[in-house]
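REQUEST ID: PR-0412
SUBMITTED BY: lab tech R.K.
PRIORITY: routine
TASK: structure prediction, single protein chain
INPUT:
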Amino acid sequence: MIKKCLFPVAGYGTRFLPATKSMPKEMLPIVNKPLVQYGVEEAMEAGLTNIAFVTGRGKRAIEDHFDVSYELEHQISGTGKEQYLEGIRAIIETCCFSYTRQTEMKGLGHAILMGENLIGDEAFAVVLADDLCISSGEGVLSQMVKLYKQFRCSIVAIEEVPLQETEKYGVVAGELVREDLFRVETMVEKPKPEEAPSNYAVMGRYILTPDIFRILRNTPPGRNGEVQITDALMTQAREGCVMAYKFKGKRFDCGSVEGFIEATNHCYQHFYK
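STATUS: complete
OUTPUT:
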């Protein structure tokens, strides 16, 4: 079924300057684990072991993280510190990693399109590592993969947000299929509260069918002069079907300092104490 997961990680992370001047924001640690590793673990749990990154300048630390560090391994071999590498070792042994570069920042839609050569003609997941999703049961991607097996169309993860915050998100509305699932009829990128079709906001988890690449190639720049995945998904919804899923779990906006601190405190309290 679905085996590939795309991570667009080329952004500059300006909200975390100066920390991100020379360090990818995706490598910022939530306690003692880089943010991007949480996303890869979620993908791996869902059976998505072919991990593709759309990177940019200054992102080599991500590639190094998902590789063996022979000098480090030698230094800690036979000591108790080896236990700290068990998680990343399991990822490296299980997953296959590939990388391509987004040389210009032209929006999320453009970043996803840059990953076409890594994905090919098959359905795939997209994870935005800024959105850290914690679930007491199945991870969000595992939940969405099950839905894809049923509906065989693109699926976006959504959650309710305060109406005054709709300008931060893509917002959807549509036909209610069941209490946690919509068939998308309207999707708007960062609408003003008075113009928002609902308060259901798209989060950083997607499953996309491969025709999205054709649509993205023909999608003109939208808001802020960028190619918006929201616009492409709206086209896909008109041509066929896009589902919006109210996932089970808690999501932290680690693209903001406040959300990052909240996520760190939550993970420390629940997983490290």
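NOTES: Residues 257-272 form the longest helix (16 residues).
REVIEWED BY: pending
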